[in-house]
Design a protein that fits this description.
Blueprint lengths: L1 E5 L6 H12 L2 E4 H14 L8 H10 L2 E3 L4 E3 L2 E2 L7 H11 L2 H15 L4 E5 L2 H5 L5 E6 L2 H12 L3 H17 L12 E4 L5 H19 L1
Parallel strand pairs: 1-6, 1-7, 2-6, 7-8
Antiparallel strand pairs: 3-4, 4-5
Helix pairs in contact: 1-9, 2-3, 2-4, 3-5, 4-8, 7-8
Length: 215
């Protein structure tokens, strides 16, 4: 069974998906960490999305990436913290908008979730990576609450995060390949004012209902 969880930054995808995977005993895939890893690899080589799209796409096809529940390895190096800086976060959004990069990583992600039970989260899981996922969820939240959550994570000014978030949302929603949008059959879940456990309980109940229907 594959549970696809999509949504914008700050909606709670990573935290909810990680907790849900633990709750159900499923494997967890953070696809955003893969884009961040490619962004980090590109930055280290001085590559620019505007100038070096082909070279970055080559990295997306070939560089070894391992995404675990708590750790991310890039070529065997632990980059869990390095990929979470504001600079790499911003670059990852640009890198993810490159069609060749997206095609390469989507294929790698499809290969990963092709067998076994997974909770996969990102921005195009239900629409591109796993369109046949048994359960598709699109998490959303009020923009200001999303910005406050991200600001707490980053130790940044909420108003600055809100402004950067608006730019990223616009870029993600307007990219030509796999734009950020709910899959047609996704369940929309608003996390505004809700705790992680409450949302996880709702998704676990949905997963159980889908599992019963499929028996």
């Amino acid at each position: 069974m594959v549970i696809a969880i999509d949504g914008p930054a700050g909606a709670g995808k990573s935290t909810v998906a990680r907790h849900l995977a633990r709750r159900l005993g499923f494997r967890y895939l953070d696809t955003g960490a893969m884009y961040r890893s490619i962004a980090l690899a590109a930055a280290r080589q001085g590559l620019s999305p505007q100038r070096d799209a082909a070279a970055i796409a080559a990295l997306a096809k070939s560089v070894p990436i391992e995404v675990g529940e708590d750790r991310v390895l890039l070529g065997g190096e632990d980059v869990t913290e390095a990929i979470r800086t504001p600079e790499i976060s911003a670059l990852a959004s640009e890198v993810a908008a490159l069609p060749a990069v997206r095609q390469a990583l989507v294929q790698r992600q499809r290969d990963l979730v092709s067998a076994g039970n997974w909770v996969a989260e990102g921005r195009d899981i239900g629409s591109a990576v796993a369109p046949d996922a048994e359960l598709k969820v699109f998490l959303t939240a009020d923009p200001e609450e999303r910005a406050r959550r991200r600001a707490r994570e980053l130790g940044a000014d909420p108003q600055l995060v809100l402004a950067e978030q608006a730019l990223r949302d616009a870029r993600d929603a307007s990219r030509p390949l796999s734009p950020l949008a709910p899959a047609a059959d996704a369940r929309i879940v608003d996390t505004t004012g809700r705790g992680v456990e409450e949302v996880v309980e709702e998704l676990a109940a949905l997963a159980e209902a889908v599992s019963r229907e499929g028996r």
